[in-house]
Sequence to fold (344 residues):
Amino acid sequence: MIRVGINGYGTIGKRVAAAVRAQPDMSVVGVAKTRPNHEAATAVDSGFDLYAAVEEREPRFAEAGIELAGDVEHLVAESDIVVDGCPSGVGAENAAMYREHDTPALLQGGEDADAVDASFVARANYDSVTGAELVRVVSCNSTGLSRLIAPLREEYGIEKVRATLVRRGGDPAQSGRGPINDILPDPVALPSHHGPDVNTIFPDLAIDTLGLKVPATLMHTHSINVTLASEADAEAVRERLAAESRLFLIPGWLDLDGAGDIKELAGDAGRPRADVWENCIWGESITVEGRDLYLFQAVHQEADVVPENVDAIRAVLGTASAAESIRTTNEAIGLEDSLERGQF
Ligand SMILES: NC(=O)c1ccc[n+]([C@@H]2O[C@H](COP(=O)([O-])OP(=O)(O)OC[C@H]3O[C@@H](n4cnc5c(N)ncnc54)[C@H](OP(=O)(O)O)[C@@H]3O)[C@@H](O)[C@H]2O)c1
Fold:
């Protein structure tokens, strides 16, 4: 069993902890928190051992009646690998601790690419991170773009990707980012950082990205134009993308007109936290004009990186091939039951 520590139990950390626990070859050593809040309470209720991320704050856990298993240094020492789900920038600060304990660690997309040895998307560059000490699972947007780009590159070749990312203003629980009522070009200067981030996965890819932020919390929506290197027709592209386990081609009859409906479906299908781990591509939007492919996809920012973190654990430790890991992860969390098939 691979012993996994989770340092940072917020939006991403708690989802990764649950996904790791569901795997047949992994166990969760425990999770680290800076304070005893509602997430600490549910971590304990879920049976996770709790570790103090900040030594001076340990007494606060005792005051709240929460027993600690130790501090974060113990968690790191006891783990074969750590998933760092701390806020942007804190992960890079923690890197020295991971290196000191000789424990490999996964940082998240909020960290700079140069803070790590390699960046990761399972479908694109699984084998390249084996043996690395510090690996970054790229952001939700970069993950969503890379999953789409990988099969298109293999099947048709890509001349250029142009993507406009309509990004949610904040996660549902991020009250600090709202209330908002605006549509912001973000960043105003082009291109946005997302293209260079995708280049950490596909270094030679020509890609330009533009970003906006809108007053929404549920998902991001991408408007995509890919100039393919060879001719394609829309139906063939649809079939090729539908064959990818982490791309969900939305059939028209499901009548999913936006992120609200997609999240509703995920909740009705019994997905934990109504999480949508796959890219959701509107099948009808897939259009080809000459070598130009167009489509819309939605990406659940809180969820798509979760299976990627699980795969990155096996990739770093070299315990399974990409295909084995993706299959095992998907089965264990229930992603194999596609949102369409799972219903009926
Ligand atoms: N949310 C998304 O949509 C999303 C998507 C993809 C990637 N990411 C990336 O994932 C990373 C985490 O983001 P998130 O959204 O999960 O953030 P988050 O919800 O704010 O969770 C981070 C948690 O880390 C804890 N924390 C703060 N300082 C810590 C420390 N020194 N040691 C241990 N824990 C600490 C905080 O909880 P306590 O202080 O209460 O312990 C906080 O709840 C970031 O790099 C982000 O860019 C986020």
